[in-house]
Amino acid sequence: MFVVSLHYKVPLIEIDRLVDAHKAWLKECYAKGLFIASGAKRPRTGGIIIARGSRDALDARLAEDPFAKAGVADYEVTEFAATVTASDLETYRES
Predict the structure, then answer these.
(1) Which superfamily does CATH assign the domain made up of 2-92 to?
(2) What is the widest separation between alpha-carbon atoms in the chain?
(3) DSSP per residue over 55-75, as a string?
(4) Which helix (H) or strand (E) holds 93?
């Protein structure tokens, strides 16, 4: 499993121009089963994505993000093993 931390490199006005395309991209990633959760950081300096699957598949999808294509965000990916979860997230638990 992965935690992806996005950090915006440009003013929010530039981010807001791309946010509809970014949301459409997120929707596609959820439909493919790659993403588990996502949302904006507070304060709004970027976002967080919780993802599953292979690192290669994740990297390929991140490269398709409109934010990445426009060069307006940096991405930090941290892999972890979810060995303990809340009961309603048991399907994501790893041994």
Answers:
(1) Dimeric alpha+beta barrel (3.30.70.1060)
(2) 43
(3) HHHHHHHHHHSHHHHHT-EEE
(4) none
pTM: 0.94
Give the pLDDT confidence of 24-81 residue by residue, as tens digits. Answer: 999 999 999 999 999 999 999 999 999 999 999 999 999 999 999 999 999 999 999 9
Q: Report pLDDT for 95.
A: 82
Phi, psi of 3 (to 5 degrees): -110, 125
Structural domain spans, the chain:
2-92
Q: What are 48's two structure tokens?
A: 């967080």
- Residues counted in the chain: 95
Helices and strands: H and E segment counts in the chain: 3, 4
Residues whose CB is less than 8 angstroms from the CB of residue 64 and which lie 6 or more positions away in sequence, other chains included? 25
